[in-house]
Design brief:
about 200 residues, alpha/beta, TIM Barrel, binds the ligand O=C(O)c1ccccc1NCC(=O)[C@H](O)[C@H](O)COP(=O)(O)O, EC 5.3.1.24, phosphoribosylanthranilate isomerase activity, Aldolase_TIM, amino-acid biosynthesis, tryptophan biosynthesis
């Protein structure tokens, strides 16, 4: 079970997520309660061991700006969240980063690699809102191998969500926060343990 913790912004919670066994950490580089500057993301990522993927998350900006942000932050993956086209993905392919396409569960083309991405993240319609949806709608659909379930996951719901969707990986933000934008170390540990136990 691949686990990504998204929206990190402090050294303590980054260390907690790494220590608890997260596979990927997301740093939101565009407008959000969790937004960090590229400089902060770079500093936080410097403490992350190489086996953990560091991801720059962007939404609502052009790919030229996304390129600049993720390069300035020195991260190893780029998550384009929302209405990005195949041409947009082609325009960042030369960066040599792991590319994550994050879309609503209602989007067309729910298939890993359809836009040239390495990982597909299937989310709620409003990213980072903590809103849950009917994960069971994905069960039995052939999305490919490397995809993550997201949107409203939490410690007490992640196991059932994995069971309903048959997801090979999960991504969480709001569900490991004590208040909007403030990550909680105990919840991070509990979430990762619950996801791993469910797999
Ligand atoms: O987290 C944000 O604030 C955010 C803002 C803009 C684009 C994407 C954002 N988050 C992306 C994520 O990968 C979240 O982890 C995912 O949407 C799940 O969020 P949540 O429902 O809060 O767990």
């Amino acid at each position: 079970m691949f686990v990504k913790i998204c929206g990190l912004s402090t050294p303590d919670t980054v260390a907690t997520a790494v220590g608890a066994g997260a596979d990927a950490l997301g740093f939101v580089l565009t407008r959000s309660p969790r937004q960090v500057t590229p400089e902060t993301a770079r500093r936080l990522a410097a403490a992350v061991p190489p086996h953990v993927l560091t991801v720059g998350v962007v939404a609502g900006i052009g790919v030229a700006e996304a390129r600049e942000l993720v390069q300035a932050a020195g991260l190893r993956a780029l998550q384009l969240h929302g209405a990005y086209s195949r041409a947009d993905f082609a325009a960042v392919a030369d960066l040599g980063l792991t590319l994550i396409r994050a879309v609503s569960y209602e989007a067309p083309d729910l298939r890993v690699g359809a836009y040239g991405e390495d990982l597909l993240l299937v989310d709620a319609t409003d990213p980072g809102s903590g809103g849950a949806w009917d994960y069971a709608t994905l069960r039995g659909r052939d999305l490919g191998k490397d995809w993550l379930l997201a949107g409203g996951l939490a410690v007490d719901t992640v196991a059932e969500a994995i069971r309903q969707s048959a997801a090979p990986g999960v991504d969480v933000s709001s569900g490991v926060e004590s208040s909007r934008g403030v990550k909680d170390s105990a919840l991070i540990r509990e979430f990762i343990a619950a996801a791993r136990q469910a797999a």
